[in-house]
Specification:
The chain is mainly alpha-helical and 149 residues long. It is built from 7 helices and no strands. Helix 1 packs antiparallel against helix 4 and helix 5 crosses helix 7.
Length: 149
């Protein structure tokens, strides 16, 4: 069962029917985040092959959240680290936004980058610094999600 603070986001995910609605529903995790850019990136799959969105992003994320094993902050910390190591700037922005909305601080996010840099050395440090700088700028309007507000 989803944690109470994530029940609305899971409900929003489950109610989305079209590919476009599903991509936009992910914004329920980070209030203030504009999902139009992500939709434009995924428009081909969202409109022409929505099962790709379902199978590789939407349904697994909803299921993970619905099980409620990991709290939001922990899950987003893991996602941020994974996206940094994979050098996936779009994923870094998405999960920094979700992490900030879950209450992560910039200091905690930078500490995650430090762990990602630990194995990759200087090359990874440069990549992480660049991706996080872009993510912090893109997420400057994200607010902490308060489910009872």
């Amino acid at each position: 069962m989803a944690r109470p603070e994530e029940a609305q986001a899971v409900k929003t995910f489950r109610e989305a029917k079209t590919g476009k609605e599903k991509v936009h529903s992910w914004g329920a995790q980070s209030p203030g985040r504009n999902m139009d850019g992500l939709y434009q990136t995924l428009e081909l799959f969202a409109d022409k092959a929505p099962w790709i969105i379902d199978n590789y992003a939407h349904d697994p994320l909803a299921d993970i959240m619905d099980r409620g094993v990991l709290d939001r902050k922990s899950r987003e910390m893991i996602f941020i680290g994974m996206m940094l190591v994979m050098r996936e700037p779009g994923g870094v922005v998405a999960h920094v936004a979700n992490g900030l909305a879950a209450g992560l601080t910039k200091e905690e996010i930078i500490a995650i980058a430090e762990l990602a840099c630990y194995e990759g050395g200087k090359v990874m440090a440069v990549a992480c610094s660049d991706m996080l700088s872009q993510a912090f700028e893109a997420c400057k309007d994200v607010t902490v999600y308060e489910p009872n507000a």
